[in-house]
Amino acid sequence: MKDDTRAVTAGRDPHNNHGIVNPPVYHASTVLFPTLEALQEGHARNPRQVVYGRNGTPTTHSLQDAYAALEGADMAVATGSGKAAIVTALLSCLESGDHLLVADSAYLPTRTFADGILRSFGIETSYYDPAAGEDLAARMRPNTRAVYTESPGSLTFEVQDLPTISAIAHENGAVVINDNTWSGGYFLKPFDLGVDIVVQAGTKYIVGHSDAMCGLVAARGAWCERVWHTFLALGNCIGPDDAYLAQRGIRTIAVRLRRHHETGLRLAAWLCRHPDVVRVLHPGLDSDPGHALWKRDFTGASGLFGVLLAPTSRQALAAMVDGLTLFGMGWSWGGYESLLVPVDPSSSRTAVPWTEAGQLLRIHAGLEDADDLIADLDAAFERRKQAS
Ligand SMILES: *Cc1c(COP(=O)(O)O)cnc(C)c1O
Known about the structure:
Bound molecules: pyridoxal-5'-phosphate
Shape: globular
């Protein structure tokens, strides 16, 4: 079965639900058992059993099954946010005394968790160049238990060599985790490249409409058990309405992402030609340093990319962004709407300092017409010029 078909069919069972196309939204804490025997047998042995609301309901199962199918995983669990999914994945494989390697380009709250809570529990984290290949072997220590990847990084868009990183990690007895939020689980299949545990902020492309929080952890083989037990131990479950919205988002993810891909590349190409632009950080462009790896491992690009402007005064930047009509300014991404935020990676880098002069913007190309978006950007550059 191809991906687009899987996205539509996985985790649905209309004929056991009165023929209704979408799964019901089960609001539940208590689950009743008819007999003493059923009560005593009612342990949360696997993610499919319905024993207590926190462990999952048929609504959660529908989302988990659809997501597992999309990633090509054996199982998945859904959490209340992407951050909670990252925490679940990390705690599934780390113990006190372990060492963790994290890509320097990783999502900032991932770093915060590693440098704060993990550190206080005796787990040491060091950061590696996201461009690392064979040279990552030199960073492995005898107690390195996990290598964390995010490709491309959601601020600076470096594409990572996942097969090489996975091979080195495995040779050294470490597990590989990948944050696959950028690709939506549609354009990149990390398990096929050697990754062991995949996480995603379902909040972004899976939900797709900026109206719910969701995290997902997918695993294969031996890791399923560890992920499931860690999920149970942490107690971070998703609410039923958000689980419903997330599984519904998966049904349309293929068409939405293809459009994000198209519009993102159109905007990126237009920006490349603009005289005030130093560089566009988009792996789908021939000129991007990550282009060859992206072409090898990805089947498309999402709508999120960066653009580095020539140095811009605060006043000119404000004139530029305050007058935008279609692009909104705000965190998160992956919804139908376009976003643009000024960002500064320099404060969140330790392995490879960000030294580019100029103003970096992060753009999310939404589902609006690309010509209208370009007109909004064009006017913003004009305001920048007037204010300079
Ligand atoms: C947003 C994001 C997360 C966290 O997801 P939340 O649902 O906001 O907690 C994790 N990783 C990446 C790459 C993200 O962009």
